[in-house]
Amino acid sequence: MQNFPEFQNENMGGCQCFCFAPFSKLAIMPLAKNALTTDLIFSTGSVWFIGLAILNTLDFQEETSNSDSGTFYKTKITGLVPSLNIDILILFNEMKQLRHLIKIADNNGNTRICGLNGGLKFAFTQDTKKLPAGTSGIEFEFTGENPEPSPFLI
Q: Which of 3, 14, 26, 137 is deepest in the core (most CB within 10 A)?
């Protein structure tokens, strides 16, 4: 146990980018408690796919929950894609069939790896909005529960 670490002078909210990969493509399960020092290793031919979201809509949350079974962490990553088209719908319908690993970077330069306990579920909501001033698109989310918090990639 120790004192809280000193705060950084600048600490911006929000996330800047993320990548995703099917959990089934993970070749080696890393042993990590709080941090990973190397990126994940995937089976041959598999890579991180680049995810996109409208500026200021990408968010990472991880809530600690306590139960009689112990502590677990509810991970949720959300964002908004500004398009309702057939290509996005085809991709998102494929993605909802799989569990995913996520690599997400916040606006302070911190990167986390999420979904190491079997992957995160994917879901989406299509919305045209009622008024022309609204942003038509697809809101997406990756969710899951893990026995450990998502480790930092350092």
A: 137
Contact 79, 51 (CB under 8 A): yes
- 149: nearest Cα among 24, 51, 60, 18: 60
Ranges of residues in the chain with a pLDDT under 70 are 9
3-state secondary structure the chain: CCCCCCCCCCCCCCEEEEEEEEHHHECCCCCCCCEECCCCCECCCCCCEEECCCCCCCEEEEEEEEECCEEEEEEEEEEEECCCCHHHHHHHHHHCCCCEEEEEEECCCCEEEECCCCCEEEEEEEECCCCCCCCCEEEEEEEEEECCCCCEEC
**Please, which residues bridge with residue 125 across strands?**
139
How far lies 87's CA from each of 3, 17, 21, 23, 46, in Å?
A: 50, 21, 18, 22, 21
Q: Residues 61-81: pLDDT tens digits? A: 999 999 898 999 999 999 999
* pLDDT tens readout for residues 5-20: 887 767 888 999 999 9
Q: How many C-beta atoms lie closer than 10 Å to residue 111's C-beta?
A: 18
